[in-house]
């Protein structure tokens, strides 16, 4: 296996060196083909996602296929402009010159993706790397085999093998791929595996994007519109069965509004998924036994105010609210990544700070409040990847906003123009004119030291 991986990488490198991928017309042509193949197979993709973890058609359309198509459309529309060298202001020390930033592809890119949004988290980085002129080796998650199968069909229909190759397989495949030398690695997954990827990349000084996870706080203060907050939180939390990297992980709320909030939250969950969410067409399952067991353990010895129903035969966990878990409880140890929502009361801003800063920098933070000064303070005070005021998840959907973490929730960002920028090296070029050659910089320096000190004052 590892010999053939080596061979494929060598062939991809040879293909990259042939300069074909640097042709913008070629890039646009394959992106257009990719767009139409996805569109053609949209129903098949939704079916695959349903078969993998009962993801509903609506959620598959909005969060997987339509999202991917919109990003590809944006790449096609802007590609020529983004590829053009950018002229920047020349510096006085280089006079006379024209200074430029050229965008060049890194070369051979490795993309490793997770299972929770298995289509878009593989296809958006793939399309972006291709738009920037790279070749790609893609390793989708082993836990969503139906989606991976469609991805292979699409990639085979659109790309020649030297340009893009999909490697199916689990951890071992990933480990073999990580032993190779890549020009760029784009990884989406857990913080722990992110560290393994970062270490492997460091061996060859390979640049990386790491899109990781975290424990995302959601603050609801006493001035918030409680009913609307409950509705927007329930949507963002239970979308994809809570298996979303930017889902609100836990609620922080003052005790005086907690009762009302819990009432509205329960109403909203029941309105959305019925009294028996297991029968709902819109509520997905947990991806596998390992995650089912991990989540089921979080329910032990807790005060469950809604849900808490599990069925191992289908990896089903109902939307669940836990009231006031202890700081050292299982549910508060790590990112939950499932349909369980702890609600914790805070009594002061100091208390809020104590809870939030006891975890690493999260991927998202959400604030529900009507107080402008409080909102401003929270945004400034805490470091997190991105977030929303009076909403959840919505930061993901605007292509003009960077999507990525900070600290242990990630390195780098993408979406919109950053899709192209992430996979492009910026090459700085000074084009010097010959009609003038200022003698100052040349030795012997002698009395020029005096002049050098004077010049400093000009900048
Ligand atoms: P994961 O880290 O277990 O797996 C991700 C990928 O890495 C898979 O393709 C897997 O095969 C591979 N992998 C697993 N263990 C490995 C190892 N030891 N060495 C090399 N490769 C390995 O993550 P997951 O369970 O698929 O996804 C859930 C996690 O991903 C959550 O923590 C979530 O927050 C995070 N996530 C982040 C984003 C984001 O955009 N920031 C998006 C989705 C998911």
Features:
2 domains; 17% strand; 15 helices; 459 residues; alpha/beta; aldehyde dehydrogenase (NAD+) activity; NAD; six-stranded mixed β-sheet; Aldehyde Dehydrogenase, Chain A, domain 2; Aldehyde Dehydrogenase, Chain A, domain 1; binds nicotinamide-adenine-dinucleotide; seven-stranded mixed β-sheet; Aldehyde dehydrogenase
Structural features, described:
The structure is a single chain. This protein has a 7-stranded mixed sheet with strand order 10-13-14-9-8-15-16. Strands 5-4-3-6-7-17 form a 6-stranded mixed sheet, with helices on both faces. The protein has a 3-stranded antiparallel sheet with strand order 1-2-18. The chain is 42% helix and 17% strand. The model has no long low-confidence stretch (mean pLDDT 97). It folds into 2 domains: 2-212 and 410-426, Aldehyde Dehydrogenase, Chain A, domain 1, CATH 3.40.605; 217-399, Aldehyde Dehydrogenase, Chain A, domain 2. Helix 2 crosses helix 6 (145-158) and helix 9 (226-238) packs across helix 10. With 459 residues, the protein is an alpha/beta fold. Strand 4 (135-139), helix 6 and strand 5 form a beta-alpha-beta unit. It is built from 15 helices and 18 strands. The structure holds nicotinamide-adenine-dinucleotide. Nicotinamide-adenine-dinucleotide (NAD) binds at residues 112-116, 121, 139, 141-142, 170-171, 174-175, 178, 188-190, 193, 196, 211-213, 245, 335, 337, 363, 405, 410. Belongs to the aldehyde dehydrogenase family. One of its GO terms (biological process) is aldehyde metabolic process. The active site is at 211, 245. It holds the Pfam family Aldedh.
């Amino acid at each position: 296996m590892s010999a053939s991986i080596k061979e494929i990488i060598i062939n991809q490198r040879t293909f990259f060196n042939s300069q074909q991928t640097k042709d913008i017309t070629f890039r646009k042509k394959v992106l257009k083909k990719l767009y139409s193949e996805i569109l053609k197979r949209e129903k098949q993709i939704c079916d695959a996602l349903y078969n993998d973890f009962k993801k509903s058609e609506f959620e598959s359309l909005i969060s997987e296929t339509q999202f991917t198509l919109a990003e590809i459309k944006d790449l096609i529309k802007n590609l020529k402009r983004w590829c053009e060298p950018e002229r920047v202001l020349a510096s006085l020390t280089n006079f006379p010159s024209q200074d430029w930033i050229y965008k060049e592809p890194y070369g051979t890119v490795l993309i490793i993706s997770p299972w929770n949004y298995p289509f878009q988290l593989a296809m958006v980085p793939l399309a972006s790397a291709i738009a920037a002129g790279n070749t790609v080796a893609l390793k989708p998650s082993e836990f969503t085999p139906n989606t991976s199968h469609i991805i292979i069909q699409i990639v085979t229909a659109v790309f020649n093998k030297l340009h893009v190759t999909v490697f199916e397989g689990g951890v071992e495949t990933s480990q073999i791929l990580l032993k190779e030398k890549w020009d760029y690695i784009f990884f989406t997954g857990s913080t722990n595996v992110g560290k393994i990827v970062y270490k492997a990349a460091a061996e060859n000084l390979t640049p990386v994007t790491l899109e990781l996870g975290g424990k995302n706080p959601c603050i609801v203060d006493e001035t918030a519109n409680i009913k609307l907050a409950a509705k927007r939180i329930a949507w963002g939390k239970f979308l994809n069965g809570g298996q979303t990297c930017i889902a609100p992980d836990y609620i922080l709320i003052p005790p005086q509004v907690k009762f009302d909030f819990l009432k509205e939250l329960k109403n909203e969950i029941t309105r959305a998924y019925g009294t028996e969410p297991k029968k709902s067409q819109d509520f997905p399952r947990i991806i596998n036994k390992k995650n089912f067991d991990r989540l089921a353990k979080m329910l032990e010895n807790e005060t469950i105010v809604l849900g808490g129903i599990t069925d191992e035969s289908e990896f089903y966990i109902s939307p669940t609210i836990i009231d006031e878990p202890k700081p050292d409880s299982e549910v508060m140890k790590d990112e939950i990544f499932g349909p369980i929502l702890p609600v914790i009361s805070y009594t002061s801003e100091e208390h809020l700070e104590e809870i939030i800063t006891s975890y690493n920098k999260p991927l998202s933070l959400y604030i529900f409040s009507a107080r402008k000064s409080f909102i401003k303070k929270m945004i400034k005070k805490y470091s997190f990847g991105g977030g929303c005021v009076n909403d959840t998840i919505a930061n993901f959907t605007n292509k003009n906003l960077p999507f990525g973490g900070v600290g242990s929730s990630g390195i780098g960002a993408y979406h919109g123009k950053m899709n192209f920028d992430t996979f492009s090296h910026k090459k700085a070029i000074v084009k010097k004119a010959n009609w003038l050659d200022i003698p100052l910089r040349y030795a012997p320096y002698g009395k020029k030291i005096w002049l050098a000190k004077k010049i400093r004052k000009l900048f």
